[in-house]
Amino acid sequence: MSAAPSAAVRSALTLALASVLLTSGAQAAPRELRASRFVQVRAADKFERSRIANTGISIEAVLSDSVWGFATEKMVDSLKSSGFKVMGNFDASVARGGHQDGFDFPAADARYHNYTEMTSKLKFIAQSHADIARLSSIGKTLEGRDIWALHINSSPEALASRSSTKPGIIYVANHHAREHLSAEVPLMFAQHILTNRMQPEIAALLEARDIWIVPMLNADGVEHDIATGRYQYWRKNRRNNGDGTFGVDLNRNYGFQWGTGGSSNDTSSDVYMGPNPFSEPETQVFKAFVEGLPNVKILLSFHTFSELILYPWGHTHDTIGKQDDLRVHEKMARTMAAWNGYVPQQSSDLYIASGDTTDWSYGQLGIISFTFELSPRNTAGMGGFYPGAKIVDKAFADNLKPMLYLLDLANDPYRALTNRPTGFLKSYVQPQPELSQFWSR
Ligand SMILES: [Zn+2]
């Protein structure tokens, strides 16, 4: 039996241990400061929800009596002192996920496409239909990744010049990193319309429309969210804000009524609006891209989750002033909701949010614009963003007809107000069963 170490030895051991800790501490990257509480806050109506949104919380789910969202400790304190009742309160830094060897989705969610897989799948799709599809980079993310746009047009001249006189539509997704399902649905849509290009209704649509699909705008954020093999609940881009925090909320960074509510100038907030409108490369690239396509009449931005169809405005509780535009947004949203079972509403009926894509695309450019909040309907704990691979087929099937309907109406969205709103589209085209096989890896 060895003797107990002397006081001198114990002291030396303590010093050695302390120096190891200090050294490793100095070498480790500084801990990122970010909103890390997932909280439920009681809220009776859109006005209370807007007050909550104004504290810098990113509201992720709206229930009849409350909201769920990501907050910092400071925001939670400020809510409580303003009299709000904070109910659930989870540490969101405990990320969920499977294997930990990193740099990809957890094994159970391998069906989702990381940036590299997305890039090769888009290249494959474009090469498989090179006569009517082309993939191009519309610019770079902050970290230098290409932002891909798949262009579908039956005219070789249009593909070559990236411009067309045919009526256009843009499907864009993944402004928010952790909303991985949002990228899968437009990707499957691209594959579907090209695989079924001989089907008469789709053939007619492909002949008559100019189609653009930008499935992964925030590629840096996506990669960060899965970089450890465990989900990070990451929302924003990867801007180094210079104060220990990272990220600007790209869907609060657009320049129409920017910073007028429901976004935050607190850099640690998940809804940080950025130092200026269009301060971020990703929103700058998308702005220039949309502005360069004057033929575009309809824009659809995919997010998750809650099963909603949203239309402007987000920055105010006022409705769209131009009566025809209000009616066309309402009518189209209701029509699509009857097919996918989502809830159609003005965006600010949830809560005020300024600087989003669709307020800008409609408000600045007059493009009829929608946001889909895809499945699931409710948050299950913090699982709303990570609903698993099984939900992809359902989300696509639910939204195929709405996506085709928008494509159909893109020559004249105001046709929605007439008795015969659809042109080429006569029936609900079911997804082909072989698609599931194609997409499984
Ligand atoms: Zn989102």
Class from helix and strand fractions? alpha/beta
Largest sheet: 8 strands, mixed
Spans of at least 5 consecutive residues whose pLDDT stays below 50 are 1-30, 94-101, 433-441
CATH fold-type name of the largest domain: Aminopeptidase
Evaluate the radius of gyration. Answer: 23 Å
The count of domains is 2
Q: Element order, helices and strands? A: HEHEEHEHEEHEHHEHHEEHEHEHH
> Can you identify the CATH class of the largest domain?
Alpha Beta
Task: Tell me the helix content.
Answer: 25-40%
> Rough shape?
globular
Mean pLDDT: 88
Give an overview in words:
The protein has 441 residues and is of the alpha/beta class. It has 2 domains: 37-91, Alpha-Beta Plaits (2-Layer Sandwich), CATH 3.30.70; 107-439, 3-Layer(aba) Sandwich (Aminopeptidase), CATH 3.40.630. Helix content is 35%, strand content 17%. It is built from 13 helices and 12 strands. It has helices spanning 7-27, 46-53, 73-81, 115-128, 156-161, 181-195, 200-208, 219-226, 281-291, 323-340, 357-365, 391-409, 434-439; strands at residues 37-42, 58-62, 66-71, 86-91, 133-140, 146-152, 168-173, 210-214, 296-304, 308-311, 343-346, 368-374. It has an 8-stranded mixed β-sheet, sandwiched between helices. Strand 5 and strand 6 (146-152) form a beta hairpin. The radius of gyration is 23 Å and the shape is globular. The termini are far apart. Residues 175-176, 179, 251, 303 line the site of zinc ion (ZN).
